[in-house]
Amino acid sequence: MFEDSVFYAFATVLLVSGVRVITARNPVHCALYLVLAFFTAAALWLLLRAEFLAIALVVVYVGAVMVLFLFVVMMLDINLERVREGFWRNLPLALVVGGILVAEMIAVLANRHFAAEPKMPAAGYSNTKALGRILYTDYAYAFEIAAVVLLVAIIAAIALTLRERKDTRKQDPSRQVRVRREERVRLVSMPTEKE
How many CA atoms lie within 13 Å of 57's alpha carbon, on the beta-carbon side? Predict the structure, then answer.
């Protein structure tokens, strides 16, 4: 009973914050509501006894992705009127997709109440260990392919940002190390002033 009430409390906060992500006027507020949605989704994962996925959600999305989103949103001068131009044009498609999602949620909840009771895991069961075993045995090749794709993306991002431009100044560490004292410091002899 207590677990159900906690679930519904977190689910309500998640739904409200999800709605506020798309309805808030300020983009920074939208990003902060998304952070709240990620935290409440992580709490729901904890209620489902999926601790690893909850921590991964907080570390990856809140710790990395949302920091990037907030940085981009705060650095760009966003024209709010231009952003909202396509709202009414895309509303019918959004309502259809939202209706499908609501129907799926109702089906899941109905299945939970009318289906057989799920069995509890044995004592000492670790879902993180089970996830790691499946990930590195059954899905090892897919995991390695995803790692290679991410590595190529990182290298491409670095290569795109490090291209040389004519109008920028850059450092050459080898020239800085080879410099001598005579090239850096110039002693100027000046006569002293007399009153």
Answer: 18
